[in-house]
Design brief:
about 140 residues; two-stranded antiparallel ribbon; 2 strands; about 5% strand; binds zinc ion
């Protein structure tokens, strides 16, 4: 069954993980040491943006009658799924202080979310170290 919906979801399923590939390149750049800090900063920024705005994680917005929330695919840790009310749900959670804990628990809600969260933290640290003169290993 090669419906267009199936095709796009299959492409989306793999294409959406380019950030992991960039993350692997970033780790290789760190191990290799031959890549300059510019390469590391660009890769770090790419992985960070991917995990915030593109990574295929679960939406998780509160849904009436469901304990685990919305199970649609969301675009990144900071964005919700295609449902308009969910789209900015997570950013709102970050702004409303009593819901930050809820947001943080969502970062580790499943394997995918944990992987994307670790990618975000890792790339952030990597970019930070690459940007601070003297902090990088020579
Ligand atoms: Zn949703």
């Amino acid at each position: 069954m090669a419906t267009s919906a199936a095709r796009s979801s299959r492409l989306g399923g793999l294409g959406q993980w380019w950030g992991v590939l960039a993350g692997a390149l970033l780790i290789a750049a760190w191990i290799n040491g031959a890549a300059g800090p510019a390469v590391i900063i660009v890769l770090s920024a790419a992985v960070l943006l991917w995990s915030f705005f593109q990574a295929p994680v679960t939406c998780g917005a509160p849904v009436r009658g469901r304990d685990d929330g919305c199970r649609n695919n969301a675009s990144g840790l900071l964005m919700g799924c295609h449902i308009r009310q969910h789209r900015w749900q997570k950013l709102k959670m970050l702004i409303v202080r009593r819901r930050v804990r809820e947001f943080c628990s969502g970062l580790f809600s499943d394997g995918k979310a944990t992987l994307v969260t670790l990618a975000a933290v890792g790339s952030f640290l990597s970019g930070l170290v690459a940007l601070i003169p003297g902090a990088a290993v020579h």
